[in-house]
Write a structure and sequence with these properties.
The complex is a heterodimer of chains A (291) and B (341). Chain A is mostly helical. Chain A has 11 helices and 2 strands, in the order ααααββααααααα. Chain B is mostly helical and 341 residues long. Chain B has one domain: ABC transporter involved in vitamin B12 uptake, BtuC, CATH 1.10.3470. Chain B is 73% helix and 1% strand. Chain B has 16 helices and 2 strands. The chains are: A mainly alpha (291), B mainly alpha (341).
């Protein structure tokens, strides 16, 4: 019994961080119909920022959030403004964005491996080896801190979307782009903001996973595949879906890892993805996908 | 009465396959194939770099086969698969295992590898092709990573260390020749397949799906059947090329076959040349293989190669989304030797 509870807790703690990573990706799809294959590579790039702040000036990875969030927000604005308007009118926009962000991912990955080589790295602040014991339940401190931070950031995102005017406009654009434009939403501006927020979330996730999972330039493919599986499960473009999907799959993966070994944990995500495609292609919270 | 507005591109599609075929490109293409067939006989002319020339030829032909096959589902039907090298790996491993256990040479068993790839493609297609657009692309990426994970941990196929194959029973002077011919056959086969698809009712149905799947369905096309068929047959020569390539390396390792970089190259070649055209992937493959060869000899590092690949992809997508063949055709400057559609 307590083993089940233990695995549940570990899964939920992981799921919190997954939810943060997936929310940026699903926000981009929801607002702009962009499938950002480069989301993973930007998370890894943020890991490197956190890493060099840690080994250089000795910043704690949580302090590096103060750098990664604004940095990636700005980067997002630049990338969106410089690349996406060119393909805005194309017939199959979403598929164009897949290819475009695939190209971006290759460029960033290439530069990362050129400058930082393929070595495994991770930041190791002192609390990475700590754990809290409650009864006979074991709670790794680093995981706990990371998912608490994720939760705060997700709440901030929720507050922005539901309590501010710009947030209303973002949600209106998610529901119906044309209608939002008709009632006076500056869709171009909202899209830039949404993309930048998505990137900022990627930056924040990078800071958090820099001490949870060792990273190297090529490791972003593993992440993006997991994240895509999560957002397909939740329903493309649904934030609620991304969070619920992340928690569910992280718990499922924790059980698979407990029973069959950690190597097989990623299979959970891909297996779930295929199952979803078979049974309910639009995902848990998705509307009928029409693209 | 609502007036029906017909998109110009739809007219082009409708006219595409029924257009009169000129004899010009056929004769020229036949000449090129003949020259490629005679190439290994020209040893005295080539001299020292003989094996190098055949190797580059083989690599080029392989990519022609891969890009042309990908184009059947990714170009004609508009379903972008980023996991097509799954079939490449399946083909490679299938023929490799036949060699290890039955001593059958992959130079002869590549059709079996291709058929196995078709069967796998059919089964995968039944599931993944239930989705459209971005969800389909995502499912192909997931497929690739899942299969990579399986092969990385499957002891029977050597897990991540892979399998070593016995050396081909040829002397060092002649070893490249059989591989070259096998790849030539595969490349010609795949381009011919792509040509036949483009000029058939089936190809027309695929193009209709690419234009607007709902309308195609309303128009009486069994879109699911067409898509799954296109996905399966596009796997054949990919699997076959994997079989021959694996044997030419004499070792099979998941990292070689299931790297997403291979899928990236396939997609990129088809896009650079012109997605949805018969000549496009061939042009794209030749351009990129040449460029890779130059870039390796100049930079010598694989990291910057990835950057170059990515930058080309961005430039082509942003400025020439129709690729070389598509852009030239639009401007009416396509030389007749490349007009295979």
């Amino acid at each position: 019994m307590s083993e089940v509870a233990q695995v549940m807790i570990l899964g939920l703690l992981q799921g919190g961080v997954y939810a943060l990573m997936a929310s940026g990706l699903t926000l981009m799809f929801g607002v702009m119909r962009i499938v950002n294959l480069a989301h993973g590579v930007f998370i890894i790039a943020a890991c490197y920022v956190a890493y060099f702040l840690f080994v250089g000036p000795g910043w704690d990875p949580f302090a590096s959030l103060l750098v990664t969030i604004p940095l990636f927000f700005l980067l997002g604005m630049v990338i969106y403004r410089s690349l996406f308007p060119r393909i805005e009118g194309s017939q199959r926009f979403s598929e164009m964005t897949v290819l475009l962000t695939f190209g971006i991912a290759l460029v960033v990955e290439g530069f990362l491996s050129y400058f930082f080589t393929g070595t495994f790295r991770s930041t190791n602040p002192p609390y990475t080896t700590d754990a809290i014991l409650i009864g006979d339940l074991f709670i790794p401190t680093a995981q706990l801190y990371a998912s608490m931070t994720s939760l705060i950031l997700l709440l901030a995102l929720w507050g922005f979307l539901f309590l501010t005017r710009t947030g209303y406009a973002v949600r209106a654009t998610m529901q119906n782009r044309t209608a939002a434009q008709i009632v006076g939403v500056n869709v171009r501006r909202i899209s830039t903001i949404a993309f930048a927020i998505g990137m900022a979330l990627a930056g924040a996730s990078g800071s958090l996973i820099s001490f949870l999972y060792p990273f190297f330039p090529n490791s972003h493919w593993r992440w993006i595949a997991i994240l895509l599986a999560l957002i397909v499960l939740g329903g493309l473009g649904s934030l609620k879906g991304a969070v619920v999907g992340a928690l569910m799959l992280a718990v499922a993966a924790a059980f698979v890892s407990d029973m069959f070994g950690a190597t097989w944990a990623p299979i959970t995500f891909f297996g779930a993805l295929f199952l979803v495609l078979l049974i309910r292609p639009q995902g848990l919270f998705g509307r009928e996908a029409r693209v | 009465m609502t007036r029906q507005r017909v998109e110009p591109s739809v007219i082009a599609v409708e006219r595409g396959p029924s257009r009169r075929r000129s004899r010009g490109p056929l004769a020229a293409v036949a000449t090129i194939v003949l020259l490629l067939t005679l190439l290994p006989l020209a040893r005295p002319l080539i001299g020292q770099p003989y094996n190098y020339v055949l190797q580059i030829g083989m690599v080029g032909l392989m990519w022609i086969a891969l890009a042309s096959s990908w184009n059947i589902i990714g170009g004609f039907a508009g379903y972008i698969s980023l996991g097509h090298n799954v079939f490449y790996g399946i083909g490679g491993y299938a023929s490799g295992l036949l060699l290890l256990y039955f001593d059958w040479s992959p130079l002869l068993t590549w059709p079996i590898a291709g058929l196995l790839a078709v069967i796998c493609g059919f089964l995968v297609g039944l599931v993944t092709l239930r989705t459209r657009g971005p969800a389909f692309i995502i499912s192909t990426v997931a497929l690739l990573l899942m299969v990579a994970l399986l092969f990385d941990n499957w002891e029977f196929v050597g897990a991540s260390n892979g399998l070593s194959l016995p050396l081909p029973p040829f002397s060092i002077e002649t070893v490249k020749i059989p591989f070259y011919y096998a790849m030539l056959l595969i490349a010609v086969g795949s381009v011919y397949l792509s040509y036949r698809v483009a000029h058939s009712k089936f190809g027309l149905a695929l193009r209709a799906i690419a234009q607007d799947e709902t309308k195609a369905e309303v128009g009486g096309i069994d879109t699911r059947k067409m898509k799954v068929t296109a996905f399966s047959i596009s796997a054949f020569f990919v699997g076959a090329a994997g079989a021959v390539w694996g044997y030419s390396l004499t070792y099979l390792r998941p990292a070689i076959f299931f790297s997403i970089a291979i899928a990236a190259e396939m997609v990129l070649m088809a896009i650079i040349g012109g997605r949805g055209t018969v000549a496009g992937p061939v042009v794209g493959a030749i351009l990129l293989v040449t460029l890779n060869e130059i870039s390796v000899s100049q930079f010598g590092s694989t990291e910057l190669n990835i950057v170059v690949t990515g930058v080309i992809m961005l430039v082509v997508l942003l400025f020439f989304p129709m690729g070389v063949v598509g852009t030239l055709r639009e401007r009416g400057k396509l030389p007749s030797i490349l007009d295979w559609d």
